[in-house]
Amino acid sequence: MKITVFSGSHKGREGNTLIMVDEFLKGAEEAGAETENIFLIEKKIGYCKGKFECWLKTPGSCTIRDDMDDLLPKFVASDIAVFACPVYFDNIPAVMKNFIDRLAPVLLPHFEEDKMGEYRHAKRYEKLPKIAVISNAGLPGQTNFEVESLFFKRLARTFHTELVAEIYRGEGEIFRGKNNIMLKPLLGKYKKTLRCAGRELVDNQTLSEKTTRELEKSIVPASLYIKFGNEEWDRLYEENKVD
């Protein structure tokens, strides 16, 4: 099985999402998967021009010459494509949306009706990868991911595939406290669950209800997280204040 992660954080290799991805991939590799993590911020990806040239002029291939020449085939060849990104103002970051827009060549221009009586573009390929999502938000609570979850459910439908896993983690800044003596065992338990999720997805093509519940549990109480979070923002404000 080939699992390709498309990491869409503007922070690249320094984001909190990467901590989640690393643990998830450890579990997937333990289960025998071939994995790759691609940092979209490090790639040259131009904006879609919306001229439909990938459907009409050069069917199945974008006329823009950039790193999507390599990324699109990687997406198509994957068994599971993982979209990994933080929440930016209740939705996915611009670098991730730009990448997704450029996946248009995997579809055909013709319309067709799906099983629910809605319409979408027909598929160019017999099989596209199943989709998983890994995301974190700075605020506590699962409600931060409502828009993102709906977006990826609709995207899976658009791409004629399945959304097989959604891993969402509020309290994202808690990962910065990995050396805190009180947080270390709590984070260790959560990372262990992420590795379990990686193994499960490879073995079963889905996550168990038990693992999903464990992944969604708060690591620390929201009130405590907010208290220390605001104190940290005050510290940073003073640190960066210009006299």
From TrEMBL:
InterPro entries for this protein: Flavoprotein-like_sf, FMN_Rdtase-like_dom, ISF_SsuE-like
Signal peptide: none
UniProt superkingdom: Archaea
UniProt keyword Flavoprotein, yes or no: yes
Glycosyltransferase listed as a keyword: no
Keyword field: Flavoprotein, FMN
GO molecular function (one): oxidoreductase activity
Pfam families: FMN_red
NADPH-dependent FMN reductase-like domain segment(s): 1-104
Cofactor(s) this protein requires: FMN; [4Fe-4S] cluster
Family: Belongs to the SsuE family. Isf subfamily.
PANTHER family: IRON-SULFUR FLAVOPROTEIN (PTHR43278:SF2), NAD(P)H-DEPENDENT FMN-CONTAINING OXIDOREDUCTASE YWQN-RELATED (PTHR43278)
Name recorded for this polypeptide: Iron-sulfur flavoprotein
Organism: Methanosarcina barkeri 3
Native organism taxonomy: Archaea, Methanobacteriati, Methanobacteriota, Stenosarchaea group, Methanomicrobia
